[in-house]
UniProtKB/TrEMBL annotation:
<comment type="similarity">
    <text>Belongs to the class-II aminoacyl-tRNA synthetase family.</text>
</comment>
<dbReference type="InterPro" id="IPR018163">
    <property type="entry name" value="Thr/Ala-tRNA-synth_IIc_edit"/>
</dbReference>
<dbReference type="InterPro" id="IPR012947">
    <property type="entry name" value="tRNA_SAD"/>
</dbReference>
<dbReference type="InterPro" id="IPR006195">
    <property type="entry name" value="aa-tRNA-synth_II"/>
</dbReference>
<dbReference type="InterPro" id="IPR047246">
    <property type="entry name" value="ThrRS_anticodon"/>
</dbReference>
<dbReference type="InterPro" id="IPR002314">
    <property type="entry name" value="aa-tRNA-synt_IIb"/>
</dbReference>
<keyword id="KW-0067">ATP-binding</keyword>
<dbReference type="GO" id="GO:0005524">
    <property type="term" value="F:ATP binding"/>
</dbReference>
<dbReference type="InterPro" id="IPR033728">
    <property type="entry name" value="ThrRS_core"/>
</dbReference>
<dbReference type="GO" id="GO:0006435">
    <property type="term" value="P:threonyl-tRNA aminoacylation"/>
</dbReference>
<dbReference type="GO" id="GO:0009570">
    <property type="term" value="C:chloroplast stroma"/>
</dbReference>
<keyword id="KW-0648">Protein biosynthesis</keyword>
<keyword id="KW-0030">Aminoacyl-tRNA synthetase</keyword>
<keyword id="KW-0547">Nucleotide-binding</keyword>
<keyword id="KW-0436">Ligase</keyword>
<protein>
    <recommendedName>
        <fullName>threonine--tRNA ligase</fullName>
        <ecNumber>6.1.1.3</ecNumber>
    </recommendedName>
</protein>
<dbReference type="Pfam" id="PF07973">
    <property type="entry name" value="tRNA_SAD"/>
</dbReference>
Length: 718
């Protein structure tokens, strides 16, 4: 068994995973794609042809779908058929099928087809779907017990092989388990040794025995085996007696359980050690750096193979790799970690996101704001950020004997805009929105591509309203959220409503009104949601929303983990008021709201959702014009200029043989290729090939432009 630190599968595992998934040993169901029962709304934006699509079907389980269609062979452009008969067919196109809108790599068993004249698209056979349902820790207590026991078995194996290793903690996690050790760094070869030792322990069918001891006895045993971390853990356990779990009579650990009865209840072929990472003890960077071994464990081998296949697909979609391959963004070491450089193509996509966002907000009655990136430190004292959020803020700057602070949030700025004048009750609701860049300090070890950065742009908005307007305003936010997310192909959400915690500001009456307004708005919208009793912020109830991508992963786009937050705190801190109908000063309700969260994080999610294969309307380059020879270059430039004049993002590529130009366009995931040969110049046309639909034939330029515009307006492919 080949185990690699970076988590990639060995060739044997790839073959086994593909075979097992095709057989669908867990009881697949064949369904017709597009039926109401199984229709995935995101498939309208993401082509479903290809080897592999994974969907998360319910909170209690994962359903992985392996789509194995018979791919339609690609067509040859008219000019190629006429002008390049001397080329071998295999030189004309390198055909690779799409997966979720992107080409497969060899690690996910891509299918290459020989070029030929394809049958009509509608003549292709219906795709069948084979589903493997994976349990979770919540849905299967047996799986949870397996994973917890695997952590202990791994720790036992490590200490057998490396007696000097000191053990710390080893919990179960979402997809498996980990254990932290104080020892020398491990290599890939070491992981293989550990896995073999685990297999031996499992095959011995050793019993897991629970024992209760006094605190004094536990201390005595820990001191006898010289485990200082366990002594610290023991000191943090408040209750007596202390529970210990033994594996046979050879190894024990402080543990509350649960575990399987014997190691023989674990299927050793359903376990994989995935990687090694550094982790500070207790998460404190000032304490010892430990070696954390991650593993995954399942009930049987078929589940493991399905999970590993899912993991491979997630790697293929990694936004960091795709961002580099497509030249979308970078993070430059010379500038510092967590600071994003948007390259021209990425900047175009950002512009489209921003433009879409602004148009929808303006249409829904929001006023746009632009505010400074820094402010006097006193502002953050008033807001409370310096008291409660200082560890996430950059150091202050001394400017002319005054302290200034890079902003970590936009809220105080919007309040200052509100306070610029006295408001009447007739002015409400007041809605302001900004794409405001903020800066937050993050440890370098926690930075992760676009998902965890130090400077990012939030789509912040604040609504100032009266108490009796809360429900309508919240419903408006939900409608706006749905409109924006649907534009980008997200139609599945997980929604949570968090209510008043034990410690909170504001009286009971206003909390009750605000919470009921949130519930009523969600009920009116028809969205299902879970209630997190006591999970709200101290200053108001909130709604959290996670979006589901093409792999069924749920993303919290907002870095402050909320779609919508009612705030009773900041209006009081800044003493904002309005004049009511009786000419008395009253305090308005303030609603925080972020739909995308941050543009950087949302862009990362978009890249992985589409695997970099953006739909036509969102693609940074929509058309690549390709001359058969440089003789047609002048005509190609004229075509590109006409496309650009009509708002279509086009470029001309030349200087290579046509097959290579086509392959490069495919690698760059360009939605449309317009091939120009001598015949096209003569007829004033282009031969068009779509990544999503194959060959579209020969079109007049005006017709080509019209079809692109219609497709972009309707958010469809061409």
């Amino acid at each position: 068994m080949l185990i690699r630190r970076n988590g990639f599968l060995s060739r044997n595992h790839q073959a086994r995973a593909h075979k097992l998934l095709r057989l669908s040993l867990l009881g697949h169901t064949n369904t017709k794609q597009g039926t109401e029962e199984n229709h995935d709304p995101t498939s309208q934006q993401i082509p479903t042809e290809g080897m592999f699509i994974l969907q998360k079907m319910a909170a209690s389980s994962l359903s992985f779908s392996l789509l194995l269609p018979k791919p339609p062979p690609p067509l040859l452009p008219f000019s190629l058929r006429r002008c390049h008969k001397h080329l071998r067919p295999s030189e004309l196109f390198t055909a690779t099928r799409n997966v979720g809108g992107a080409r497969c790599s060899s690690s996910t068993a891509s299918v290459a087809t020989e070029p030929a004249i394809a049958a009509p698209q509608e003549a292709q056979k219906e795709e069948s779907t084979e589903r493997i349902v994976l349990p979770t820790n919540d849905s299967s207590e047996n799986l949870l017990r397996i994973r917890h026991t695997c952590a202990h078995v791994m720790a036992m194996a490590v200490q057998k092989l490396y007696p000097e290793a000191k053990v710390t903690i080893g919990p179960w996690i979402d997809n498996g388990f980990y254990y932290d050790f104080d020892m020398e760094p491990l290599t890939d070869k070491d992981l293989k040794r550990v896995k073999k030792e685990m297999d031996r322990i499992i095959s011995r069918n050793l019993p897991l025995v629970r024992e209760e001891v006094t605190r004094e006895e536990a201390k005595k045993r820990i001191m006898a085996v010289n485990e200082p971390y366990k002594m610290e853990i023991l000191d943090s356990i408040p209750q007596d007696p202390i529970t210990i779990y033994h594996i046979g009579e050879e190894w024990w650990d402080l543990c509350a359980g649960p575990h399987v009865e014997t190691t023989g209840n674990i299927n050793r072929k359903a376990i994989e050690l995935e990687s090694v990472a550094g982790a500070y003890w207790r998460g404190d960077e000032k304490r010892a750096m430990l070696q954390r071994i991650y593993g995954t464990a399942w009930e049987n081998e078929e589940q493991l193979m399905a999970y590993l296949h899912f993991k491979e697909e997630a790697k293929r979609r990694d936004h960091r790799r795709i961002g580099q391959d497509l030249d979308l963004f970078s993070i430059q070491d010379e500038a510092g970690g967590g600071l994003v450089f948007w390259h021209p193509k990425g900047a175009i996509v950002r512009h489209i996101i921003e433009d879409t966002w602004k148009k929808i907000h303006i249409n829904r009655g929001y006023d746009m704001l632009y505010t400074p990136h820094v402010a006097k430190a006193d502002l953050w004292k008033i807001s409370g950020h310096l008291d409660f959020y200082k560890e996430n803020m950059f150091d202050q700057m001394d400017i002319e004997d005054e302290q200034y602070q890079l902003r970590p949030m936009n809220c105080p700025y919007h309040i200052l805009v509100y306070k610029r004048k006295l408001h009447s009750y007739r002015d409400f609701p007041i809605r302001v929105a900004e794409l405001g860049t903020v800066y937050r300090y993050e440890l370098s070890g926690s930075l992760h591509g676009l998902f965890r950065v130090r400077g990012f742009t939030q789509d912040d908005a604040h609504i100032f309203c009266l108490e009796d307007q809360i429900k309508d305003e919240i419903r408006g936010v939900l409608d706006l959220t749905e409109e924006i997310l649907l534009q980008f192909g997200f139609s599945r959400y997980e929604v949570n409503l968090s209510t008043r915690p034990e410690k909170a500001v504001g009286d009971d009456e206003i909390w009750e009104k605000a919470t009921c307004a949130l519930k009523d708005a969600l009920d009116d919208k028809g969205w299902s949601y879970q209630v997190d009793e006591g999970g709200g912020a101290f200053y108001g109830p909130k709604i959290d929303l996670k979006i589901e991508d093409a792999l069924g992963r749920k993303w919290q786009c907002s870095t402050i983990q909320e779609l919508l937050q009612v705030d009773f705190n900041l209006p009081q801190r800044f003493d904002i008021t309005y004049v009511d109908a009786d000419q008395e000063r009253k305090r308005p309700i303030m609603i925080h709201r972020a739909v995308l969260g941050s543009l950087e994080r949302f862009f990362g999610v978009l890249i992985e959702h589409y695997a970099g294969d953006f739909p036509l309307w969102l693609s940074p380059v929509q058309v690549r014009v390709l001359p058969v020879t440089d003789t047609q270059l002048e005509y190609c430039n004229n075509v590109a200029r006409e496309l650009k004049r009509n708002g279509i993002r086009a470029e001309v590529w030349h200087g290579e043989r046509l097959p290579k130009l086509i392959r490069n366009a495919e690698k760059q995931k360009t939605p449309l290729m317009a091939v120009v040969g001598a015949k096209e110049v003569e007829m004033q046309t282009v031969t068009v090939r779509s990544r999503f639909s194959g060959e579209l034939g020969t079109l007049e330029v005006d017709s080509f432009i019209s079809r692109i515009k219609d497709a972009c307006e309707n958010r469809t492919s061409l």
